[in-house]
Design a protein that fits this description.
The chain is built from 20 helices and 2 strands. The protein is mainly alpha-helical.
Length: 419
Amino acid sequence: MRAIIFSFISFVILVSSSLGSIAAQRFQSKQAAVTSTRAGGSVEASEFDRLRDEGNDALYNTDYKSAREAYLRLTKIAPDHPAGYVYLANNAWLETLFLTRRLSATLYAGGSFYDKDDQREKDDRVDPNREAEFNQWIEKAKELAEKRIQQNPKDVEALYYYAAALGLKAGYKTTVKRSFRGAISDANDSIAIQRRVIKLDPNFIDAKLSIGLYEYVIDSLPFFYRILARLAGLNGSKKKGIEYLETVVRQGRYTQDDARVLLIGIYTREGQPDRALEIISLLANKYPRNYIFGIERANMLYRMGRADEGTQVFADLLKSSRVSQEAVDMVNSQWGNALMAKGDFAQAIERYKEVMRWPKSESGLATLAHLRTGQALDALGKRADAEAEYRTVLKLENVYDSRKQAEQYLKKPYAPTKD
């Protein structure tokens, strides 16, 4: 059962994270302007697009404050349109992931993030103010979309944003709260609505983003679960899914970069790291203030056996003024993980120690640094030192069930898995 849940959760994360720069699909030709609530005011669609693009560029550069300001202005000029509220919710969600160091693809590639018994463990602790704001924007977006759908059940734009809101809920539950089962229903409902959008308007290319990923994930399930999925009416095709996403890259109006982000993971999984690296490099150049693309590039180079190049990228990131102010812990943690995967345990320990030393390290990453250091020490045969690290983990914040893992390794030493 864990395998199918894991696959669905991966789907939820990827679909929802792709909403990073979802924008208003084209206006119907008869909708040349968006009416403003300001007396006698009317704002041309070009102003709507300008604010959307301004917000999205800031979002992709991890400037969440500027993105929020742009999206708030969008809700002022188009108060009856759900788009601005979807963007605000998405911005709040991604900022939360950014601040808690969960905005990295490699985090979700391993099993520890999912190592949670839903019947025993509580949802991860969240900032109640941030969660309230996120829920406020989501509910407002759904309310406005539903109002338009009631007036016109074939309003593809309203359906699209309603589906986007559901996808965001699923992504938030999965990545922030790690409430996995609660996310699946929202994700499935989101895809069902996106399929309706495509049926109503086959040229609504951006809606193929989520559907393409869905096709890919369903066909990627282990054989037994793929049969169960088909019996439940869930069918997919990896080939079709990739084609959909590549179509969005070529023809999508506003979500080309979102499709590129998804294809990074898919190309990696399909044994095409060169194509994945090409996309990462493109996005890193396009959004130079977003050091997360730099981290992903370094990780990919390590996976490709180009450790010297990956080392240089990590080292250059640490020289960046922005990284030195706000992300020394994240870069060193990711670097340590790359070294662990390579089997270079001694050097990995040095990276994790840097996480522990940095005074502004996020508490969760500090906990994981001690846990990973214990694993590396076990791999080097330094059992007593490893045990000391695991005992330290038991005194720190429980992150991704770190205490459970520490207790496990205190009973039985960590052993690296063999490829």
